[in-house]
Amino acid sequence: MNAGLSLAGIALVLAILWANLRPWWKGNRDPQQLRAFGTGNLLGALSTMCGGGLLGWLAGCAPAIANTGGEKATRAVTGQSSAGAITTGDLGQLTPEGAVVVFLVAVGTVMAFRAAGKQDKKRMVGGVFCGVCLCLTAGVAGALSFLPDLINQAGTVLKDGVQGAGLL
Fold it and tell me: Which among 18, 104, 109, 153 is least buried, having the fewest CB atoms inside 10 angstroms?
């Protein structure tokens, strides 16, 4: 489903990550400053678990964009190619209940995006891009291996709660 990332692609993703984290680190380190980037990052990470649809398509396109942009940027700055592939990772699959949770996160992210200012919109887009690309690496996917179970279980709890209340 997802293309692998090159070293140049990861370099581009890390540059975007640094551009978003550096102002927070140099500032007063208020967690609220990371909200827009973190919201996008979560949606990006969850997108890698989607087997299709708009989020699955996004997760499939982001690595190619990172690889192409990273290769051009790396070659322009250094004159050297960095197209070597890196080890890929996978967060796993969603259950139907987990898909509902991801849908609700996506709706919430879109609503936050529409209400955000210009700078926060840029941060959210950067967060989605970084979230997708980083979760396709073996290291980050391994570190977040708890996420699919958490999302799928949250969906099950939601379903059981609605059914138990006689609403469904």
Answer: 18
